Amino acid sequence: MSSGGSDPLALIAEASRRLRAAGVPSPRHDAELLLAHACGRDRAALLAGRQPVSAPERERFRRLVERRAAREPLQHILGRWPFLDLDLKVDGRALVPRPETEDLALAVLARLPEDRPLLVADVGTGGGCLALAIASARPLARVVAVDLEPAALALAAENAAACGLAGRVRFVRADLLAPVAPAGAFDLVVSNPPYVAPEELPHLDPEVRRHEPRSALVAGRGGLAVIDRLVSQAPARLAPGGLLALEIAPAQARAALGRLRAAGLADAAVLPDRFGRPRVALARRPEA
Q: Three-state SS string across the chain, please?
């Protein structure tokens, strides 16, 4: 990519060609965000104003484009990414927040009352997107964010502090639910667990397989090993009527329903994500 020219649209067009040649799925979108980041300007204002791009800004942009062409995740390069109404720090310590996980959060919030105290567990919290979204939207909720990886918990705590939610979320290093709370405690257990089968990992995009933590992605037994353990632990940890909500791979819908029902949970269902793919598995502990 050359460093000549100061017109933002010309620079974006050139960067788009470079990114498209590198196999980046959304080259124009990424080029626009990278130029806005390099210039420290709002994306819409940058495109509308046509203010010339300075030489130092062009050099910063060139370096960012080369990182993206090497298939470093856009979110890692920018350092932040939105999740619902939150603006979160993003890096290699946890998964990038994804639209499908927003759909999990929305499905859960649609089922959580707003007018009473709640106890919520986010299992495998990663960077904290689910825990913080729930804490933000339900001020009466107390949220326990659980992860086995200290680096992920540190990132989640940083995000909680930045969002003004540090006093609302307790961070616990644990392997799923067993050591977290007494029986019958939680109104909600929510999780985006690892659900990629090991044999699927080589076929994922380079941004995922090279840059995101394997422990947050991959699980044995066809991607169901962690889901199986969590489903077996959840009924005893849920309060009567409490909800278990999991993000799953579309191909796991039938297996997830079977496991939820076998665990004695009621009202098992799988909801589609915004792309129409089976994604959110839900079930409740029976009231009696």
A: CCCCCCCHHHHHHHHHHHHHHCCCCCHHHHHHHHHHHHHCCCHHHHHHHCCCCCHHHHHHHHHHHHHHHCCCCHHHHHCEEEECCEEEECCCCCCCCCHHHHHHHHHHHCCCCCCCCEEEEEECCCCCHHHHHHHHHCCCEEEEEEECCHHHHHHHHHHHHHCCCCCCEEEEECCCCCCCCCCCCEEEEEECCCCECHHHHHHCCHHHHHHCCHHHHECHHHHCHHHHHHHHHHHHHEEEEEEEEEECCHHHHHHHHHHHHHCCCEEEEEEECCCCCEEEEEEECCCC
pLDDT in tens, 227-244: 999 999 999 999 999 999
pTM of the full predicted structure?
A: 0.94
Whether 4 has a pLDDT exceeding 70, the answer reads no
Average pLDDT over residues 202-210: 97
Q: What is the pLDDT of residue 234?
A: 96
Partners of 222 in the beta sheet? none
Residue 137 has pLDDT above 70, yes or no: yes
Q: pLDDT digit string (tens) for 179-191?
A: 887 777 999 999 9
Unique residue bearing structure tokens 């667990």: 193
Task: Map out the domains of the chain with their CATH numbers.
Answer: 8-70 (1.10.8), 82-285 (3.40.50.150)
Q: Which of 186, 134, 177, 141 is nearest to 156 (CA)?
A: 134
First-to-last C-alpha distance (Å) of the chain? 65
